[in-house]
Specification:
Distance between the termini: 40 Å
Mean pLDDT: 90
Structural class: alpha/beta
Strand content: 5-15%
Largest sheet: 5 strands, parallel
Low-confidence stretches: none
Helix content: 40-55%
Shape: globular
Number of strands: 5
Order of helices and strands: HEHHEHHHEHEHEHHHHHHH
Length: 344
Amino acid sequence: MSESTIEAPWLVRQRERLLAQRGHAWLLQGPSGLGQYTLGLSLAQAWLCQQPTAAGACGVCDSCHLIGSRSHPDLVVLMPETEMLERGWPLSESAQKEIDDKKRKPSKEIRVEAMRDMVGFAQRTSARGRGTAVLVYPAERMNTVTANALLKTLEEPAGDTRFVLASESAHQLLPTIRSRCQSHVLTWPSEEEALIWLQNSARDAGLRESGADEARVWLQAAGGRPEDALDWARTGLTAARWSQLPQALVKGDWSMLDGWPAAAQLATLQKLCHDLMAVAAGASPRFFSAASLPPAPRWGALARWSKALMEAARTVEHPYNAGLMQEAWVAATRQVLTRTAARA
């Protein structure tokens, strides 16, 4: 999961606007890849900074260093344990021990136990005198019990506690949660701005392929979402590989997807299906170049394939049998695209 050290200018502008406004709880919302987590964390860092400016945290004080080392005593980060571990945030001692002792796997939801710990944290006095902050991401990963545990503290925060909830599916949140937050919808950067940031971030990450052509393909593969595009860059995706992928799938060649997580494989099939549906409807494709796509199948076949992919997405993180799941995807993809090739 990408965390670039190069600040995105569209996030800097939004942070300045948000810091200029008052309020104890923000809900940052929008599709993935626009920087909800990055913006949310930078807001919390600015709130706790010892020398903040209108533009945000100073980045050099002790408080900023403590956030950078994931050890600030006045900041609680509530995320699924899988996300916490991936981003380098420590779990509570009890949660880490349960996982280390193989009593359970890291949770993919925000656990109610962590939320209850936060409620106790919000009632304590600030350790460094700048108040306390709570970051919840992705907020839609709270179940009803966890969300209700947050609700009371969100309504009547004790002391000087501020909240930032960041969500990629805000419609899934309880209406009572949404109503108690000031809402901010993340803005999209221009293509030029996103491409410049993406190239600089790729170079900063030590990626050799970071030219304009590669960056444009990463951004296209991500549907114009810069942080998702940087994740594509980190997989080693090249312009040639992405352009060859649709025709490879027509031939039943799955090798280009080998080694990708199941969720990434499924997302790629959904993008291909989306673009074929767009072409069939007379529109331009979004994720692939028009020249790389096979002829579009009949609408009925595409609609059935799209429905099957959406159903697969419900269980992709908890497959009954990963091997059988992939075999089913291969068969369905070949069935749709091979018939297309035969008609062409």
